[in-house]
Amino acid sequence: MPHDDSRAAEPVTTFRRLLHAQRVWDTELPAFDVDTAPATPLTLFHRWFAQAVAAGQVEPHVMQLATVDADEKGPWPDVRTLMLHDADERGWHFATHATSRKGRQLAANPAAALHFYWPTQGRQIRVRGQVTTAAPAEAQADLHARSTGALAAALVGHQSEALGSQDELARASEAAWERAAAEPSARVPSWTLYVLAPDEVEFFQGDARRQHVRLRYERRHEGGSGSGGEDGTTVWRTRLLWP
User: Which segments of 55-189 does DSSP mark as H helices, in order?
Assistant: First the structure.
């Protein structure tokens, strides 16, 4: 009896119809005059972030973190969504458990990339560089400056470990919420604050006619004797990229 593939094809056809019907940037997009770009990417990031908030961008502080996991497969890329905690002269800050998968990956290979996407204005920002850990006291202060829910989630722990059941999570979460409410300064030893010091930062401004503007900042060290530019001056060089 011949096999009928028509029913199996229906969901695929429906998906493709929905996919191809989607549109991007169905709004007026801002211009990006690269001639007026500031000397440092941090200044431009702060400016674009404020503009994203003013434009009503949902969760502009949410970003994607890409790391590399070295296992039997060799270098194996990984990515997830998490929250930006700060962006200052040291770099872009984020936090997680050192025992989580991304924490272990960063311990083995402390290089990473960040990605922000703000569709309200058709903008993307990509950041690449080396990652270091902040002092434990700073990590705990960062955690305790956040909400009770954030502390409770950190107290649950076990991130990336296998979970036996949703009931097990519910019990652990309830206990963690109670402790977080009663002990707002509770320490979470595995909680780690990471700082990505950028070597490259790219700003992408979408254009309705696909004449997108891409400006990349590249870190250069001048006058230093060390391989990392110690005792020298950090300068940023910019270059335009084809979209």
Answer: 101-108, 136-144, 148-156, 166-182
pLDDT of 158 over the 50 cut = yes
Residue 78 pLDDT exceeds 50? yes
Structure tokens at 21: 């019907």
**208-212 long-range CB contacts below 8 Å, 24 or more apart?**
208/25, 208/29, 210/243, 211/243, 212/243
Residue 228: is its pLDDT beyond 50? Answer: no
Both structure tokens of 86: 């700060």
R_g (Cα) of the chain, nearest Å: 22
Distance CA 132, CA 128 (A): 13
What's the N-to-C CA distance of the chain in angstroms? 52
* 78 residue type, one letter: D
Cα distances (angstroms) measured from residue 205 to each of 34, 131, 190, 209: 10, 26, 38, 12
- In 3D, which of 145, 154, 143, 144 has the Cα closest to residue 176? 154
